[in-house]
Amino acid sequence: MKPIPDHIKENLDVLFVGFNPSIRSSETGHHFANPTNRFWSILYKAGITDRKYLPTEDFKLLNLGYGFTNIVARPTKNAKEISSEEYRLGRELLKAKIRTYRPKIICFVGKGVYQEYSGRKNVQWGKQLIPVISGVVDFVAPSSSGLVRMGIDDIAEIYSDLPKLIPVVNQQRHNSIL
Predict the structure, then answer these.
(1) Which parts of the sequence belong to the Uracil-DNA glycosylase-like domain (predicted)?
(2) Is the dihedral of CA 57, 15, 145, 72 positive or negative?
(3) What is the pLDDT of residues 59-104, one digit of tens each?
(4) In this prediction, what percent of the chain has a pLDDT beyond 90?
(5) Chain segment 138-166, per-residue pLDDT in tens
(6) C-alpha–C-alpha distance, residues 32 and 58, integer Å
(7) For residues 172 and 78, what is the distance between their CA atoms, to the nearest angstrom?
(8) How many alpha carbons lie under 13 Å from residue 106 in its C-beta half-sphere?
(9) CA-to-CA separations, 89 to 60, 99, 117, 151, in angstroms, rounded
(10) Which domains does the chain have, with CATH numbers?
(11) How many whole angstroms from its chain centre is CA 19?
């Protein structure tokens, strides 16, 4: 199985970070490609996108200000197969990407992803009070996996805070430059 490419560029509004690619994502080369994954429906229901995109269109979201990466690049059937060493290396690579590309908001697609990244155990949904990297907002959202027992509307409600947060972060960045 091969890793899939990041879709990332400087100054994105939101960089979505997953655990790692699924087998289906590795096969197709696209993020959140498993047919049971609800990611693309969640983005649409949350008002982040104006329509439901297909996984094969993941690269198109760069033009909307959204990018994709993972904390671990190696595809697996599930996140339980990821070793602590892979998380340690992935955490450092992810921090380097964030420092290089400076997205406004990092949306961790799953509480466990953020816990592995931040080392924090007590995590609430939404914007975190203290970011890991200064000047970049950490936002924790439920995993979009079909294995998650939360209803899609409840998950989309949490994600719907992202489009509201973007203008606030833009204003804060603008004010810090002045």
Answers:
(1) 5-150
(2) positive
(3) 999 999 999 999 999 988 888 889 999 999 999 999 999 999 999 9
(4) 82
(5) 999 999 987 788 999 999 999 999 999 99
(6) 9
(7) 38
(8) 29
(9) 28, 16, 10, 33
(10) 14-177 (3.40.470.10)
(11) 9
72: amino acid identity, one letter: V
pTM > 0.70: yes or no: yes
Supply 31's token pair.
């993020």
| CA 1, chain centre distance (Å) | 21
Closest CA to 22 of 52, 53, 1: 1
- Do the beta carbons of residue 109 and residue 21 sit within 8 Å? no
Q: Which residue has the tokens 């671990």?
A: 72
